[in-house]
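All the exercises in this workshop are built on plain-text protein records. An example says more than a description, so a record of this kind follows:
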Amino acid sequence: MKKAIYILFITTIIILSGCKSTTYLQIMRPAAVTVPQNIKAIALVNRTVPEKKGLNIIEGVLTGEGIGQDREGVQKAMDGLSQVLEESPRFTVKRTTEALKNNFIAGGFTDPIPWPVIGNICRRYETDAVLALEIFDSDFVTTHASKVVEKKDSDGNVRKVTEYNAEGVASVKIGYRLYDLSTHTITDQQEISQNHKWSASGNSVKDALAHLLERRIAVNNVSYQSGRAYAQRIAPSWFTASRVFYKKSKKNPNLALGARQAAVGNWEEAAETWKQVLNNADMKTAGKAAYNIALSYEVIGDLQSAKEWASDAYATYNNKKARDYSRILDRRIWEQDKLDQQMNNQ
């Protein structure tokens, strides 16, 4: 089994209490959508400029949004989109200054961008496809309530006071289209809705609202995350996974030795040390060692061997945690196969 080449780095944090350690792996996850292999370079385009001048100003007045709020949110969405795409080895990304007009409404997508326009953009930026942000709408709703709570005053006396709570919910709806120039097809079209909730408290409604995250910042945060979410749909992207392993045994010092080797990144040596544990260990300790060996192979990138050792840790030594870990490895093997297909010829 070839080693997975998409693990970027590994860090280990030793938990001081208990008998276990935690390691964090940066792993590349395959995209939800497999983009055709002919698309290797993508131009990013903003197609949310209103057809009619002043339309966004009128909307801002009617909804209470700050003038230009959606325009700023669009840029944040493009920031999140481009960051994930640029971090992925799958595509070359060209973030353009193109700002195309669109008369999109709350209902959804309008007619696609004409192919002559797509062709012109691809030629100028030397790309195979255009990824256009075509829908963007944001909102920020605040509510407030109050409740009586008990608090100690400066003299230590408990008093009942009224506490005021404010809650703000920022939501955005964005829509993307990926245009494949060579086939004149829309490879992907997706609308994403996301929201996030913030809360704050104070001595009055005004005070609580003042402590709440500012509307513009809240919308920008959700817009940025929405852009990242769509990019992860079409491009292999990094995520952090945590794994727990055993670091000591009262009956076998080699388990602790292997854990120390793993803590400084010597996973191959750790695996060999843990294999020595199996020679003269009781069932419980052997199960811990087999589980650790499985983890060492995952870190190294040999997922098939990791799966075999995890299965052995459960089936032979009755390590209960190894059963769940074996299922995680099944998922990782499936994802790795899909990732290999998506990265083919890159």
